[in-house]
Design brief:
Structural class: mainly alpha
Strand content: under 5%
Shape: elongated
Number of strands: 0
């Protein structure tokens, strides 16, 4: 049991690994630590599902935006107002 307690990770580290897993592959040790944590923590399993769903939705949104030509252009007046506000805040 001592061996397992030294290898267990906290929820904040699990959340970090879940995010990392979305970007790239985890090494075996980190993957195993995450798997062991997810076996015991229902909140992190729920978080993992939510992150996966969010990534799917963002991916779908990107595909839709890329497939359609962007038809929204700012008018000269709108550009001038935005530029003016930015310059004033500097």
């Amino acid at each position: 049991m001592v061996f397992m307690s030294k290898r267990m990770i906290a929820c904040d580290e699990a959340a970090f690994l879940i995010s990392c897993k979305q970007e790239n592959r985890l090494g075996f040790r980190r993957w195993w630590q995450l798997k062991m944590h997810l076996l015991t923590c229902h909140l992190c399993r729920k978080y993992e599902k939510q992150i996966a769903q969010l990534n799917r939705l963002v991916g779908r949104y990107r595909e839709e935006v890329n497939s359609e030509a962007c038809q929204h252009h700012l008018t000269e007046e709108a550009r001038f107002k935005i530029h003016h506000v930015i310059e004033r805040k500097r």
